[in-house]
Amino acid sequence: MADPSSYRPKPGQIPDSPGVYKFRDEHRRVIYVGKAKSLRQRLANYFQDLAGLHPRTRSMVTTAASVEWTVVTTEVEALQLEYTWIKEFDPRFNVKYRDDKSYPYLAVTLNEEFPRVQVMRGAKKKGVRYFGPYGHAWAIRETVDLMLRVFPVRTCSAGVFKNAARTGRPCLLGYIGKCAAPCVGRISPEDHRELAEDFCDFMAGRTGAYLRRLERQMGEAAEELEYERAGRLRDDIEALKRAMEKSAVVLADATDADLIALAEDELEAAVQIFHVRGGRVRGQRGWVTDKVEAVTTGDLVEHALQQLYGEESGDAVPKEVLVPALPEPLAPIQEWLTQRRGANVSLRIPQRGDKRALMETVGRNAQHALVLHKTKRASDLTTRSRALEEIAAALDLDSAPLRIECYDISHLQGDDVVASMVVFEDGLARKSEYRRFQIKGFEGQDDVRSMHEVITRRFRRYLAEKEKTGEWADDGQETSAPASEQPAPTETEQDTSGLVEEDGRPKKFAYPPQLLVVDGGQPQVAAAKRALDELGIDDVAVCGLAKRLEEVWVPDEDDPVILPRSSEGLYLLQRVRDEAHRFAIAYQRTKRSKRFRSGPLDAVPGLGETRKQALIKHFGSVKKLRSATIEQICEVPGIGRKTAETIAAALAGAAPAAPAVNTATGEIIEDEAPVPAGTSDERGQRS
């Protein structure tokens, strides 16, 4: 590791002008490329105190052995040069793109005497009209096959074309009417070019006028009793409509736009792009980005724009590009896009209407892509083994932590304070072992005290299980995961070691972890370690994962453990922490929703949820039930006279809530029936 001061340029040597800079390592390899409006101000940020740098930036400047720069005239030139150097040098500390294979386009070679329709990948060529990109080449061929009936444009290669011209016999498509056979002179070069241009117009979204023309010709043929021609035109119209149905209209006014959405966490981001042409989704593409450097959402958008349009021809940049966040500064990237297109480009965030709705759809696709990527990565046995080994090495453990437990505290402004415990065994979630806790030792918000209480209660149960074998009484404060998250026990769990219940399920809290992870930094780690020390447990390792910088904290250490950005161990710890957070949020929301749903009927002894719902369904609201007689209440199935009298007395003693008033009409809004209990939404942010 190098000392940045050893290669730091003198302030007077660095120009105060726009430019692009490169950091190189001791082997002269470029490890980072960046741009700046002011090279002097930007580079000064890298040579400050290392403790004040972001961990990834700190790693970069200590890996580097030299820095150099190139001065340019404008920020737009800096943007272009930065992209060129990133593509050329592939620096390890810049944002990385994975799974960004060359997507196929539908191309029409208008630069040839006889234009050809084909699937093309790679760099764009001058004089070729492109449509797409598409997710799969077969989608292009399927669409072209439908359209060749109406637009029989040449699709054969140059070799096949020359061979047909030499022999005077067209290929199969020429015989079945899906090629106009210009190779044997059935159509003139001018007419064939006009056919290709009609094909391009139709693909560009100008479909209505062409379909109306075909319908008019079909009607004229029918009036002139040319039924075969009318039938052929009818089939042509149906073929074109089927081709149009393959890309549904999503935006009005024949909009041309690209929509870019992101789903990200601290380590990775998934980029998803929808290409809308003529109001229709013509293609979709995406990739997963490694966040090697500290980047904002706006920075990721800028990188995505460079990746998307850096090698495209000008006509591939649409009039409108919709993004979730704008890069800072906006002017250079806006000007660069305008130069690429040769006309103004609108780069903005959609606020309302159809475009906002479509952007949400693109965002859901990005979120799904990120989850799928993480799932595939986590399912690999070799990767999981390497992750556990890296964790053991980083924390100086004697062996790989085959069982990891993670704890998280969740609350809403100090109310409904709960905790979660999730378990990973061999790097995979063990949902049957998940547990939930209510904080009962004190009132209010104190994450450190809450963590100490939860760890104490969990391991006190573990010690109790070591001393006895029978079933123990549950105090109702710790609960298992929902039944939907509890798979049946495997044969290996059904042993006779005394650690299983009579039904074969593992006893609660009977197995200790090799590693205990808490969601938080030094204070939470210290609280967990103190709880273990008070119980005399010294064979469980403890660490904490701080969310902001993904630092791993261990007890009695002033500095965190920094795992490499590409570390599978860090990735596994993050997954464990995020799962604990999700599970805690779900439980906290369930408790909150139950509290919000409570009402006068909850005070009636012996009245369960089923009969509450039956009463509300029968009368329509608590207000109408309150005004009902005992005889009317007895009409509800399952309600006897004694229960009806209890209900009437309870409602009479409860003060009715003030009626809600519609401020627009002045009408009183009747009480609504309570919302039935259901699964809580597990999405959201921790309060």
TrEMBL record:
Localization per record: Cytoplasm
Swiss-Prot/TrEMBL GO biological process terms: nucleotide-excision repair; SOS response
Main localization (coarse): cytoplasm
SUPFAM superfamilies given in the database record: C-terminal UvrC-binding domain of UvrB, GIY-YIG endonuclease, RuvA domain 2-like
UniProt-annotated stretches for the region Disordered: 468-505, 666-687
Alphabetized InterPro entries for the sequence: GIY-YIG_endonuc, GIY-YIG_endonuc_sf, GIY-YIG_UvrC_Cho, Hlx-hairpin-Hlx_DNA-bd_motif, RuvA_2-like, UVR_dom, UVR_dom_sf, UvrABC_protein_C
Keywords: Cytoplasm, DNA damage, DNA excision, DNA repair, Excision nuclease, SOS response
Pfam families referenced in this protein's UniProt entry, alphabetically: GIY-YIG, HHH_5, UVR, UvrC_RNaseH, UvrC_RNaseH_dom
Domain annotation UvrC family homology region profile: ranges: 259-532
SMART domains: GIYc, HhH1
Family: Belongs to the UvrC family.
Listed name of the protein: UvrABC system protein C
Organism encoding this protein: Streptomyces triticagri
Organism lineage string: Bacteria, Bacillati, Actinomycetota, Actinomycetes, Kitasatosporales
